[in-house]
Write a structure and sequence with these properties.
Elements (H helix, E strand, L loop, with lengths): L1 H10 L1 H7 L36 H6 L8 E12 L12 E16 L2 E14 L4 E17 L2 E13 L4 H6 L7 E14 L4 E14 L7 E13 L4 E13 L6 E16 L2 E11 L3 H4 L5 E13 L2 E14 L4 E16 L3 E12 L12 E11 L4 E12 L8 E13 L13
Antiparallel strand pairs: 1-2, 1-18, 2-3, 3-4, 4-5, 5-6, 6-7, 7-8, 8-9, 9-10, 10-11, 11-12, 12-13, 13-14, 14-15, 15-16, 16-17, 17-18
Amino acid sequence: MRDGLRILCAAMGPLIVATTLTAQTLPMPVLPPEPPPVPDPTAPAGLPEPGANPRAEELETGGPRPARPWEYELGMGGGWDSNIDFLVPNGPGGVALSPRAGLARVFSGPRGELRATAAGRWTSYSDQNLNRYYGDFGLDGAYRSSPSTSWRVNAAYDFGYSDSARILVEQGVLLPVVKTRSFTGVLGLSEKMGPQTSLQVEGRFYRTEFDSPGFINGESARGTLGLARELSTRSTAAIEYSFEYTRADQAGRSYLTHFGSLRWTRVLSPQSALLLEGGASYTPDAARAGLQQKETFFGGATFNRMVRGSSLMLFVRREVAPAFGIGVSRLEVRAGVSATVPMGRAWELRLAASHVQPDASPVATQVDAISDDAFVALDRRLGRRLQLSGAARYRRRGPLGTIPTIEALQAGLYLTLISPSWRAISPALGL
């Protein structure tokens, strides 16, 4: 089953490039699939290769362990939040207690996999007499309907507060902590049209609602059509067109933005790849969108590296993207890094950081704030079903006119009971 899924993932590589999202869009260079291990002809039959470290289940069954149909987590944590409301500089802080739970059902087959998840947590600030509740529900699946056709679907709904709303975090919009509800949906198709050519089609919908009248509900729908061609075993070129319908102002008016670009992906080694993109966007009603001009250059670079369970991703990108809650779109430069680094058999380091710098806008000065969001966690496995995590998150919104810089630091310790294949819910999005 694992070999089949590896083949499926390799076939869906171009589609994953088109559908990996961070702050609207972030194309990712796809690494070549790992070659199967070459058996040692001198090794006795039935014994593992020298230096291999197979799991007990694989030794007992003589093959890879199939995907577990049920996954779960149940945890408790506590920590400190230096600015609970993220409304003013040096706002009130407090100690937080946060129980959390999650459940996932995995449906696996020879052609794909579907994962349904539900998770929730409760954060209590006893000294502030304040309680906050968060919930997340999601579907994530991949299906190969034929040797040349692959599908991907993703849908998620979450309710909670703006500090944990994934759409806002990805857009780099740091707002005061208010109640939100968000929905995302993605449907993608990859069609192999020849030995070196593939077609990618994607539709995506975002919506975020705010319970506070001071913020504007945001909604966007985006369609993408791309054609990719392998130039060599290491290089791939692609041409892509997207259009995005956005509705995000007080009157509920909408506007369109068109994107056209060229991409070039270069595999630098079996473990690393680089993607470069350049193009232009066009917003006919730039004034309604809050932009200074109709035409803008957009593009960027993404570097991806994976070695023996560790991963590293670096990116820098410039493009027009909606800013939900504010009611306009922004031309912004984004840069970020994410990494997962195993340290021995029981320790793992995770980190993610992003910097968003919007262009100055004379139309809507309230969107000019620079934002920074950084998260780091150190996990320690205690046996197969317990994990101890120490985590910290730093958020910073730059000055807005007469409003000074606002900062917040969260830090906590979490103990989680998990199934062997489940990764504990990241404490990055709210304590």
